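Table 4 source record.
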Amino acid sequence: MADRHHPHLRRPSSGRRCGRWPVKAAPAPGAARRGRDRRARVLTPRPGAPRFDGATPPTTAVVGGGIAGLAAATALAERGVRVTLYEREPTLGGRLAGWRVDLRDGTTATMSRGFHAFFRQYYNLRGLLRRTDPGLHRLTGLADYPLRHSSGLQDSFRHVPRTPPLSALGFAALSPTFRFRDLARMNPTAALPMLDVRVPEVYERFDRVSAHDFLETIGFPQAAHHLAFEVFSRSFFADPRELSAAEMLLMFHIYFLGSSEGLLFDVPDEPFPAALWDPLGLYLQGHGVDLRTSTAVENIAPTADGGFVVATADDEVRHDTTVLALDTAGLRSVVEHSPELADGPWRERVARLRNAPPFLVWRLWLDTPVAPDRKGFLGTSGFGSLDNVSVLERWEGEASRWAARTGGSVLELHAYALSGDADREVEQKRLLEQLHTVYPETRAAEVVDERHEWRSDCPLFPVGGYTDRPTVRTCDPCLVVAGDLVRTDLPVALMERAATSGFLAANALLERWGLRGQTLWTVPDRGRTAAIRGVARWGAT
């Protein structure tokens, strides 16, 4: 591809700038929508023109084709920016990508890194998906989200009220893990910070405390501690002893105590590529995006006129601006090999970022079905390393068709936060034993085929690590960062943090060009009511 230098991009006397281009009016691009929560917060972008109007549009390199990169590319391309998206893997989706596999029975299937829950408070991610599925018909809701402990205790969120504080009271009343004598031993004052979570204040107060230690000070019943809280904290792929209490508090605010969307969620009704990323890829190409899959970026060098040269194994291309939308290891690698990006302190902070411990996803195609009452998703605790079990044919079309044709079942097992020196074969054997304990009918099943994914590429949010995490903006206004590892100072996490940060990165560039950015939504950014906030403040004093 030829070098695309914009003649109006000038290097100022001090600092770098991204220039301004003429713009014209056009229909506003799609936006996120508030759900059922009337207290959800809207983030309105700065005023600006809806779309670029000029002979030579600005150019942006988006490095990374996961959720964050796709969100950034979408917002930029919809407003007329010429986007080149670089993705090292052959498919889009990042950690939600999927790929074809040939099974031993002669059929093909789609393998991925495993189950992901699309919660109803993921406003901005759902807004991204609405670009190709306005009614979100390719998402289907699971009727329940049960949790089972090896002791026999089981929790469910199906009948728990969705609006706080009724959600917390209802969960405690309905859960077998909260008994009156256990509640009497708790330290309710220590739990008050959970009622009024704000960002970044929650990090200033609790980032240097582990999730495990915070829960210990409250004195939650051990059964509740293991069944509910540990299941949630491990969804960050980290042991609660390593996870920042601030991140856990933010999580409870988003999913339980701060939002009235509830804890039930949706899942794609087909594998990730068919349901999500293939349609979005076509949408982006329709907006002129140059999708370069199977293309790893090796380094990025700032240019004297304020742009960047992005180098791959095949070529070097100049872009006016750059969005780094990489996972932790990918960001560290690109920055390490790009010694002139941003400044030294920023590069040092990036170099200190850590990956979460390894995790294992094991998908099994069995020749016999599981019991008909098995739910589509089950969270587990106390079963060794087994964290959850999915019965894919309950909600995924491809798995359902395979099960109907063969009379079998397609299961997926997850083991999070494994030890760094864990033996893969040993862990797989243990997972199978734990599956047989949780679903005894699987003991007699024959394995038609199986696939394993052993990964260690999720971000770790360690105790005291908040200040090292990059923000969307850098000291270079033409260089922005996106991803679930990024600090946004908003109440978002996991996939929603990735989508939100991608839109924020695009907005940071768009406002410099006089273009109106993406309108965003979040769950409430504080306790639900003045009374609740007052109680939390009283506890803090």
